[in-house]
Amino acid sequence: MGINFLLLFLTAMIAGSLVFFAPKFRDKYFKLILVFAGSYLFSITILHIIPELFTNGIDGSKMGLYILIGFLFQQLLEYLSSGIEHGHIHLHHQGQSKSGVMTVMLGLFIHAFLEGTLLSHGSLLEENVALGHVHSGKTVLLGIILHKGPAAFALSAVLSSVLSKRWTLMLLTVFALASPLGMFGSAFLFESGLLDRDGIGVLYGLVAGGFLHISTTIFFESSPQHKLHVNKLLVSFLAAGLAIVSEFFL
To answer: Mean pLDDT score of the chain, rounded to an integer?
Structure first.
């Protein structure tokens, strides 16, 4: 998990720091990156995470409920975070921007912490061997990295508009540590017996629902007039193709 920690942390820090080196980014290209990340995230949720939830021995009778709760819970988190998870570079309450920073950080931290739990599921995969259903954790890791980069950039853009560079970097560091903390924290709780397999399954269901909410929101917001954009369509197909290759052929 040490390599995962470095990849998650450095992705967020490097992507967030780009705000200071490329403050006038091209909105068109940023949206294409978001569409690619959203398409990949949606694809691995359908191809990897949800099938694993229903085939690893965890009680599947309520798994659909957990996924639905995760979908709705992410909507609440995005109210707190102003939608930075899917690329919103603004605060809703411009007159109270500084006071709204902690609310944004709370929503983003909870989201990032929960998604980090997906990377600590080695114990569950060991039991999947008997079912012939083993997936590579690299598929999920790549999805989280692709999602975390644009989110970190959007967060830094928002923070730097109301805070000093020092405070922006400090809060960016907190965000960068959230997913690794979720990864290590859930692994510790599981190994110490404080969290059983059903509890882990609930966490994964919540995250799967959150991923569905984020990825579909990116799709809808990328084409608000419901017009066909060939470049975005091609980027979506490319991301879905990468997810298929990484899931079934790597």
So the answer is: 83
Residue 43 is which amino acid?
S
Angle formed at CA 41 by CA 35 and CA 46, multiple of 5 degrees = 125
Are 180 and 9 contacting, i.e. CB atoms less than 8 angstroms apart?
yes
Residue 173 CA to residue 45 CA, distance in Å, equals 27
Euclidean distance between CA atoms 61 and 7, whole angstroms: 35
Q: Cβ distance 208 to 7 under 8 Å?
A: no
Rg (CA), the chain: 18
Cα 143 to the center of its chain, rounded Å: 7
Question: Are 206 and 69 spatial neighbours (Cβ–Cβ below 8 Å)?
Answer: yes
- Please say if the pLDDT value at position 128 is more than 50: no
Q: What is the pLDDT of residue 87?
A: 64
Residue 78: predicted pLDDT: 87
The predicted-structure confidence for 30-73, as pLDDT tens digits, reads as follows 888 888 999 999 999 999 899 888 876 666 678 889 999 999 99
HEC string for 221-233: HHCCCCCCCHHHH
- Give me the pLDDT at residue 178, please: 96
Tell me the helices (H) and strands (E) count for the chain, helix number first: 10, 0
What the block records as the tokens of 125 is 């995969």
